[in-house]
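Let's see one such:

===
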Amino acid sequence: MRTGALTTKAHSLGVQLALVFYTGGFYVYSLLVYYGMPAYLRGFLVLGAAICIPFLLWPYLRLLSHPASHHSIDAIVWSMLGYFLVWMLAIDAQTRNSIAFNNYLGTIISWGMLFMLGRVVPVYGRGIPRLAQIVFAALFVLTLANMEDGAFTPAQGADAEATYQAYAVVLAVVTFVLLYDAERAIRFWAIGVTAIVSFAILGSRSELVAMLLIVGFAGNCRRQSRQTFVLEVIAIAMLVAAYVYLTNTGWNRLINLVDEGAESTVIARSEMTGQAWTAILNHPMAGDFGSYDDGAYAHNLLSIWVDFGFFGMLLYVALLVASIHGILVHARVAFSNWRGIVSISLWGFCVFLLVFTKPGHYFVVPFVMGVLASTRSIMYPKMREANARTASLTPAQSAEQAMRDVHAA
């Protein structure tokens, strides 16, 4: 028993170190760059992910050693990443020297680490919320420090990887860790509103809209009066509207989204999507890896089909379906449990972005897939108990029992 307790503490410590190093390390690196340190690493997220993998591997493998923790998501994720790697190694030498190739190598490393992190945080997460709160507050302060005339102005440009995209990824991961245990209303709204304000300052339009949607969804699923929920949503909308009005400088990315005289991101992304469809129609099975200029990939799921062909796309869609299927099959239990509500919300966050604004290699996706897999495993005993209890009930009795479960949860 003592050995088991020590092992669990060691695993928990490893998970905490990985989370703090990946998110807090990005904060420290960005802070040093902000104060003038040359961007020696060019970026931190991929290197940070590679360093974190040893801390997570042991807890993750121990988690998989329990039959109740097995999940199809694990098999799909590692099969998909293996398929991507083999596919990349099989392409011609010229393409292997491309920017797209190097970017996807980093993606495979980051996806592997972030999936394991999302998988083990719900299980070995004791002590993590407090650490996440510190990083969350530090990121918010650093975001404010990088703000000029209401807009985010990262130091030393994209080479420092202190861009709004990198900030948004790290902020999303930390926010999701905190929301997972934010069952108390005041905690939930404090985290949600702070994240929304941060995304607004960063100019992360996609994450901002998605966060508004999931905060609204999760807030509506809370056991509170509808009038209170409506007032809270109106307060958030007024806060964001006030920020947009007060920072109407013409540079801010939130203004550019609707300003007809500004650069139209919507039109540019529509053109990229059209180019992706052309590549898919010309090469429906094999795709056309890296057949676009740097950064000109489709900002949606089609990017996977273009780079990894039909079977790569099939694996990706299977991942999205498998990740939510196990929870929605037992939706009654999921919606009576806060972690189930948050997990469904996070899945909606990812799917919304993947359909409209983010490429398939978006770094937040693997973390959410890991959280969904572990949430289903944690909730499985409750799901099995609920199934056994309702198996012999009539539909009317089952509905009455569902209401009792909701009020008792």
Summary: The CA atoms of residues 2 and 285 lie 54 Å apart. The first strand starts at residue 147 and ends at 148. The mean pLDDT is 76.
